[in-house]
Amino acid sequence: MTTRPLLRRRGRDAEDRRPLRRLFTVGAVLVALLALAAIVLGGMALSGLSASRAVLLDRVSPALDAAQGLSVALLDQETGVRGYSLTNRPEFVTPYDTGRAAEAASLTELRELVDRQALDADVDAVAAAAQRWREGYADPAVAAVANGTPAPDAVQGRVLFDQVRTRADLLQRDLTVRQAEARAAVASAAAFVQFAAVGVAGVLVLVLVTVGLALSRTVLRPVSDLAAQVRAVVNGDAQQQVRVDGPREIVELGADVEAMRVHILADVDRLEEANRRLEEQGRELERSNRDLEQFAYVASHDLQEPLRKVSSFCQLLQRRYGGQLDDRADQYIEFAVDGAQRMQRLINDLLSFSRVGRTTEGFVPVPLGEVAASAAAGLETTRAELDGEVVVGDLPTVSGDPQLLRQLFANLIGNGLKFHREGVAPVVHVSGEERDGVVEVTVRDNGIGIDPDYQDKVFVIFQRLHARDVYAGTGIGLSLAKKIAEFHGGGIRIVQGDGPGATLTVSFPAAPDPTRTDDAPLEESLHDHA
Question: What is the per-residue DSSP string for 317-343?
Fold first, then answer.
């Protein structure tokens, strides 16, 4: 099963989909345009409100105040002229003069403030009527009083001033109307601002709702569907095909998940096939073990029985007819006895080698010091013949099979005694220590040593570095020791020392601590020492 067709189909499906980047770009442009329109609309509304407020506060209301000031200035003039005419007192002339100055200032301010032609006409009418009143009555009356001549007709003066008053009232009325219009414009602008604010808020809510619905439809819903399908696959429904609809990126993600699902299924199929082969190999191994057990039985009974007869009769011939035949016959009999004995030792060693790892008993705590001392005691005859020495130090306790461990020490100590230098009494030291959860036992001798070029070869079964007539043996000792060490979860290696002889180090896991729950550091230490 391959994912290439899925990838090609993913490319075709993805090309037919709109990418999220394009959708987000279009959405961002629309939101930007709406935001710009909202800003423009709000700016226009605020600008209209500001303009209306400026007209009301900066022009109309000050113009109305100026009109009222103009009326006051005209009344001051009329009061001053009338009082001067009646009392002939000069202080009444002062209000007349100040009123004229105030009138001129008010007229100037009004002409600057009014913003309509009708109001300009009203201002001009007031100014013209005031000028006629002064020329027709006020100025002549003041001059007549000052010169002592008869004053002009007071009735005519009242008529002229009534015209002035009428024009001033008309100006104030028109300005009041203009003020009402300005206030209405301000109110209209404020209402437009409120309308614009409500409109912008409504558009914003609409945009948010639209964006939320669009995201839910184009992104959240496809992602949720994809997540549900992935959870279904994770929960065990690995045969369900993962298909998702939506933008290009989500479709591509779904295709990647589908390709991963197909790849995992392919891996599962391969694992199932590997497990099937392992089960077949396991059954084959069980059959091989049964054949091996049958071989061990045959070797221990059917083969050894005739071998014992051959050996027994050869030895009987050697004892009964030794010296009665010629030398060649004695040599043949000796060859036959030696061959039978070596064959029996070889069969026994092979049986020992094949039995390692097939024990059905559980491991027990084994004090290595006692096992090593027992193995050394079994080699006491050999040690005495060679006038050698075996020194067993304090050794830790490990978990294992006592008989196999005794055989391991017997082989290592026996090699130390056997491979001695000519004329030098063999000395074998056995020592050990526990460090970082690993027990290391060192067996060191002063014999001929092991060439570094053959350090791996010596652990291969039936491999010998010396001729049989020089050092006896079957070539199984160290390979058997290695198998026993590995069966106990450890290993064996040769350590090069400074002096003569060979040094072998055997590593074992330390006896388990009942309070220990984490075995990872122990396993790491064993791998480091193996």
Answer: HHHHHTTTS-HHHHHHHHHHHHHHHHH
CATH 3.30.565.10 fits 362-529, yes or no: yes
- What whole-number distance in Å separates Cα of residue 114 and Cα of residue 120? 7
Distance CA 99, CA 34 (A): 60
pLDDT digits (tens, 9 = 90+) for 65-98: 988 998 999 999 889 888 888 888 888 888 888 9
Contact between 113 and 122 (Cβ < 8 Å): no
Terminal Cα-to-Cα distance of the chain (whole angstroms): 41
List, in order, residues 6 or more apart from 200 with CB less than 8 Å away: 38, 41, 42
Higher pLDDT, 252 or 201: 201
**Residue 523: pLDDT band with limits 50, 70, 90:** very low
- Asked if CATH classification 1.20.120.1730 holds for the domain at 18-228, the reply, yes or no, is yes
How far apart (Å, rounded) are the C-alpha atoms in residues 393 and 369? 7
| Domain residue limits, the chain | 18-228, 362-529
Q: In 3D, which of 503, 512, 513, 509 has the Cα closest to residue 529? A: 509
Residues 45, 193: contact at Cβ < 8 Å?
yes
Question: How confident is the model over 36-58, as a mean pLDDT?
Answer: 84
Distances (CA, A) of 211 to 205, 230, 307: 10, 27, 96
